[in-house]
Amino acid sequence: MNIIKNNFVFHNGETATADGNVLTVNVANQVAVYITGSTTSHTIKFEGSDGVDVNANWYPAYARRSDDITYDSQTTDVAECWVVDLTPWVAFRVRIDAISGTNATLTAIGRVVDTNG
């Protein structure tokens, strides 16, 4: 297994809804997304794309929660890790669809790997 990017920052202390940084997949075939923060309520959506330009289409990307093997394309929890298969995607993002609470912040950091290498 080759670590492609040890820390890819999708969001860092985000306080509002945002698409976040876009990961161009290249040779990577898996990313572990670590979600932390403090909110009253939020929704984070995992999304994969068929391209990297402005005309790219974004689709739900299913991820596996590491602690109980739940599959979903979104989460409303923090202090968890989700693992995403990147093989179908040209690009991947972790979109904050909703966030609320006093001093609410969300951080999503990825560890990008090539499990074939």
Notes on the protein architecture:
It is a single chain. This protein has 117 residues and is mainly beta. It has strands spanning 2-14, 23-24, 30-38, 41-49, 58-60, 63-65, 71-72, 74-75, 80-85, 91-100, 105-114. The strands form 2 sheets. It has a 6-stranded antiparallel sheet with strand order 1-11-3-9-6-7, with no helix packed on it. Strands 2, 4, 5, 8 and 10 form a 5-stranded antiparallel sheet that branches. The mean pLDDT is 94.
Query: Averaged pLDDT, please?
Result: 94
Summing up helix and strand content along with how strands pair, one would put the structural category as mainly beta
Oligomer: single chain
Number of helical segments with 4 or more residues: 0
Strand content: over 45%
Largest beta sheet: strand ordering: 1-11-3-9-6-7
CATH class: Mainly Beta
Could you name the CATH topology?
Jelly Rolls
Poorly predicted parts: none
Query: What sequence of helices (H) and strands (E) makes up the elements?
Result: EEEEEEEEEEE
Report Rg: 13 Å
| Overall geometric form | globular
**Main sheet?**
6 strands, antiparallel
> How many strand units?
11
Q: What is the first-to-last residue Cα distance?
A: 5 Å
CATH architecture assignment name: Sandwich
Number of structurally distinct domains: 1
